[in-house]
Each structure stands twice: as C-alpha cells, then as structure tokens.
Amino acid sequence: MGIVPTNNMQVKALKGLHLYHAGISNCAMRVRMTLEEKGLPWESHHIDITKKENLTEEYFSIHPKGLVPALVEDGVVIIESDDIIDYLDKTYPNPPLRPSDEKQLETMYYWLHLAPEIHVKAVKTFIYIKRMQGKMSKSKEEGELYQKLQKDPELLEFHGKVSSGAFTDADLAKAEGILHEHFSAADLRLRKSKYLIGDQFTLADIAWSPLYFTLKEMTDLDLKDYNHLRRWAEDLEERPSYKTAILDWWPM
After folding, report:
1. Distance CA 220, CA 40 (A)
2. Confidence at residue 137, expressed as pLDDT on a 0 to 100 scale
3. Beta-bridge mates of residue 73
4. For tag attachment on the chain, is the N or C end more exposed, with fewer CB atoms within 10 Å?
5. Residue 11: how many CB atoms within 10 A of its CB?
6. pLDDT one-digit tens code per residue, 17-68
7. Assign residue 72 a region: left if phi > 0, alpha if psi is -120 to 50, beta otherwise?
8. In Å, how far are 132, 148, 216 from 140, measured between CA atoms?
9. In this predicted model, what pLDDT tens digit does every residue of 88-110 receive, in sequence order?
C-alpha cells in the first residue's frame, strides 16, 4: 500500500524516521534490518502486539489495518513491510540493496512481494496453530472493537477463526504446503548462488530471513532437508544488522 493518509496530528508532526514495530514481528524485522543496513537513525515506538497494544483507535489512525510495522518519515506514514523497505532503499540508495541488472531486479521484486503475500494464509496461520492457539483470544469488547476498526477481509477471516477456534487440520496442511513450496524454490536458487539474487545481498534476503527465523524459533516446521537454505540463513546470522534488528529485539 505504501504511503497512506492519516488524521493523527501527533504523527503528522513527527520529524525524522519513526518506526512503529514489534520485537516478535517478522514484518517489523525486515524494516529494522533495512534501517540498520543503511545506517539510518530512527526512533522506536514499540507496540506489544501480544498485549493487543495495536488494538486501539489511535493506532488504527496510523496503520489502517492495525498491523506493524508502520514507518513515519517527517509526518508521512508508509505501511506494508515490502513497500517500506523498497521506499527506504530508493530514498537512501547507499549502500544499494537491489541489483542493477533489470532481470535480476524483476526477480528480486518477485521474492520481495511474495513474503508478505503469504504472510496471513501461510506464515501467520502456521505459527498461530502451532504456537499461539488459545493465547490471543479477544474479550467480547475487544472483538467488537476489532470488528469496528478492521476493514481488511483476510484479517477479519483470520481473527474470526482465532476467536471461534475454527482452524482445522486442512488449514494447517494448506499453510505448511505453501511454506514448503516456497522454501523448496528458495533452496533450489541458493544451490547456485550465495544469496537469493545471485551474489548480492538484496531486499529479497531481508524479506525472507526474518520469516525463516520466526518459523524456526516458534514452530516445528521441518527444515532439515533444505541444506542450501540453512547455509544461507547461517551466513545472514553473521551480519551485524541481523543481531541488532532481529536478535536484540526478540522477546523469547
């Protein structure tokens, strides 16, 4: 979605880079990692989503879906992690986190947008069923407020299943199948190159490394057969931005 309007006057008055984020969110990890790779100063506004601190009219005035992250630069709100990190790389081009070759750039955008595309239907669903089931239910009042504020059909469906405990074995199998499909494709690419897009570290790697991390840390997803993917993940763990953007904020 990129830039979104806001009527929140306090947010409009902010100067510099401000990030509304959660330590546990793989989407927020992407933005923190990009900020660290760029060496950009930013101010933290941490939202504890496990305590539903995002479930307020004030926060929905910043992010219309009530999600993290949301980046504010000089009063302008930018949402969706793939759009945010793309914006940061274009606005602050050094060091570059995109290939110069047009064909590789097209491939990078495929992987960059794919990660958030499967977030709710695969990543979020799989983690919830495996780790969070029964831990994020809303009170009657919270449920009514969410129904009032949330306009996104996919999120309404997901949280409707959370509230009713309606997730099925079929939901789990579908989510797991999507994850294995794309991890297999990534493993195949990484058999021939150091990173997802050749030998250059790009936004594609930033999009997928937090996703891999949270699934590994929070679930029993079987990743043992993805030798090239595991090598790639271990290499990324050595980057300073990985420690400061992922590990230092990880609450578990």
Report:
1. 35
2. 75
3. 17, 76
4. C
5. 19
6. 999 999 999 999 999 999 999 999 999 999 999 999 999 999 999 999 999 9
7. beta
8. 19, 12, 33
9. 999 999 999 999 999 999 999 99
- Residues 65-83: b if buried by 16+ CB within 10 A, e if exposed: bbbbbbbbbeeebbbbbbb
Domain ranges of the chain: 2-91, 102-239
Q: Which CATH number fits domain 2-91: 3.40.50.1580, 3.40.30.10, 3.30.1330.60, 3.20.20.70?
A: 3.40.30.10
Return the closest-CA partner of residue 159 out of 147, 174, 171, 141.
147
Question: Which one-letter DSSP state was computed for residue 150?
Answer: -
Strands of the sheet with 43-46, listed across from one edge: 2-4, 76-79, 70-73, 17-21, 43-46
**Residue numbers in the chain where pLDDT is lower than 70:** 1, 134-136
> pTM for the full model?
0.96
Task: Give me the DSSP letters along 10-53.
Answer: HHHT--SEEEEE-TT-HHHHHHHHHHHHHT---EEEE--GGGTT
